[in-house]
């Protein structure tokens, strides 16, 4: 199997590791990794790297992400989503739509967000969620995140709770569950997520995502289902085509006399993807060489 990216439409009920294990069997290599986890409850875009393309994943994890979500106001849970135990309830029936929309609008922009306690963040070398499972009290520090856009599609009352359908674009590291929790807290009724679907990771959206069944069919039919590493790099990063002399320098990891604005994918005259380079003053230096 050639190196590249596999963009999976993850089903609900599977962990990201479950998806990686399935794809390893399908493509016939253990060298498969993912660019950022999705909770078992969540569905949608999960970007996987195969073989050498796994080295792209750390850079892709830093890109913006898109989500569709359902926030339920009136109930708070231990995990800030529907998989946790209910810790409090309060009637949200008195909330009017204008107040709900105005409160959600306050969560656009640069935020200091406390991640959910059952996140994968490491605390003294141990995942926060594991500490919670072991009965420990976990207090995580606020982190800077950015919500670029948050669109409210629908606000509907269901008895004592209010369900809000939203779409958002946000920086890597933003916890949508934490937004649901914090909106509910600000409104005084508690909140959690009942549904989450990731619609995009950087340039990769649901339009290019394949279900595991579709991927299996592609592999069985010899179509592969893997986005070649050169195409993946051009889609995710600014690109620069080099001449033969510069390409030879890249192959041995030399700096280049290039003015770059951001981390850039560089290519040989043949179209071969060579490396990622970043600006360092008047020159460009290698971040990762793939040849």
TrEMBL record:
Q: Which InterPro entries match?
A: PsdUridine_synth_cat_dom_sf, PsdUridine_synth_N, PUA-like_sf, PUA_sf, tRNA_psdUridine_synth_fam2_C, tRNA_psdUridine_synth_TruB, TruB_C
Q: Which UniProt keywords apply?
A: Isomerase, tRNA processing
| Claim: Isomerase is one of the keywords in the record | yes
Q: Where is the signal peptide?
A: none
Which ranges carry the tRNA pseudouridine synthase II TruB subfamily 2 C-terminal domain? 237-290
Q: Which GO terms describe its biological process?
A: mRNA pseudouridine synthesis; tRNA pseudouridine synthesis
Q: Which reaction does it catalyse?
A: uridine(55) in tRNA = pseudouridine(55) in tRNA
- Give residue ranges for domain tRNA pseudouridylate synthase B C-terminal: 177-220
Q: What is its EC number?
A: 5.4.99.25
Using the UniProt record, name the top-level EC class of this enzyme in a single word: isomerase
- Key word Isomerase present: yes
Q: Which residues form the Pseudouridine synthase II N-terminal domain?
A: 24-176
* Residues at the active site: 39
What are the recorded GO MF terms, alphabetically?
RNA binding; tRNA pseudouridine(55) synthase activity
Q: What does this protein do?
A: Responsible for synthesis of pseudouridine from uracil-55 in the psi GC loop of transfer RNAs.
The entry assigns this protein to a family as follows: Belongs to the pseudouridine synthase TruB family. Type 1 subfamily.
UniProt protein name: tRNA pseudouridine synthase B
Provenance organism: Nocardioides marmotae
């Amino acid at each position: 199997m050639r190196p590249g990216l596999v963009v999976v439409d993850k089903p609900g009920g599977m962990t990201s590791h479950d998806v990686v294990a399935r794809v390893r069997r399908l493509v016939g290599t253990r060298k498969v990794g993912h660019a950022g986890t999705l909770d078992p409850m969540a569905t949608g875009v999960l970007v996987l790297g195969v073989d050498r393309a796994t080295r792209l994943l750390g850079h892709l994890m830093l890109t913006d992400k898109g989500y569709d979500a359902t926030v339920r106001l009136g109930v708070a849970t231990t995990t800030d989503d529907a998989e946790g135990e209910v810790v409090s309830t309060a009637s949200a029936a008195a909330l009017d739509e204008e107040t709900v929309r105005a409160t959600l609008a306050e969560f656009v922009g640069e935020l200091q967000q406390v991640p959910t306690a059952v996140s994968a963040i490491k605390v003294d070398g141990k995942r926060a969620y594991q500490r919670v499972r072991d009965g420990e009290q976990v207090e995580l520090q606020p982190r800077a995140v950015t919500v670029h856009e948050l669109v409210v599609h629908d606000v509907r009352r269901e008895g004592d709770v209010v369900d809000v359908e939203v779409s958002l674009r946000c920086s890597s590291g933003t916890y949508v569950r934490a937004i649901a929790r914090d909106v509910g807290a600000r409104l005084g009724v508690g909140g959690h997520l009942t549904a989450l679907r990731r619609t995009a990771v950087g340039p990769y959206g649901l339009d290019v995502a394949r279900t595991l069944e579709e991927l299996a069919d592609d592999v069985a039919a010899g179509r592969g289902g893997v986005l070649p590493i050169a195409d993946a790099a051009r889609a995710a990063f600014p690109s620069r085509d080099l001449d033969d002399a510069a390409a030879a320098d890249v192959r041995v990891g030399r700096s280049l006399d290039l003015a770059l604005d951001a981390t850039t994918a560089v290519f040989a005259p043949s179209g071969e993807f060579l490396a990622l380079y970043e600006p360092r003053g008047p020159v460009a230096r290698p971040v990762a060489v793939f040849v």
